[in-house]
Amino acid sequence: MAARIYQRPKNAMQSGKARLGEWILDFAPAEARLPDPLMGWSGSGDTQAQVQLTFPSAAAAQAYAEKYGIEAAVHAVPPRKLKLQTYADNFR
User: How far apart, in Å, are the Cα atoms of 83 and each of 10, 54, 68, 89?
Assistant: First the structure.
């Protein structure tokens, strides 16, 4: 079982910062998604792809993965860069 651990990204549609400190562990798909012959929707029999676990820190997520023998790769979040400018800079 392979998984990835990453930090929840900020929602671009909202200015709030709720749940940004959470770390997520989700599993890689074990089989390819195929179109359903009747409806044409894509799907698979892999139920692990639907599981998404949240943790307060990356260390807690790694400890969980090690405890249950899950091969997890941690994806670090790049630092945020704030572009500070005044309102008057819009007219220069």
Answer: 16, 30, 42, 12
What is the percentage of the chain residues whose pLDDT exceeds 90?
A: 40
Average pLDDT over the chain reads 89
Q: With a cut of 90, say whether residue 11 has pLDDT above it.
A: no
How many structural domains comprise the chain? 1
Q: What is the CATH number of the domain that holds 62?
A: 3.30.160
Contact 73, 58 (CB under 8 A): no
Rounded CA separation 11/67 (Å): 31
With respect to residue 38, please indicate whether it lies within any of the assigned structural domains.
no
Query: In whole angstroms, how far apart are CA 39 and each of 34, 36, 42, 43, 74?
Result: 12, 6, 9, 11, 37
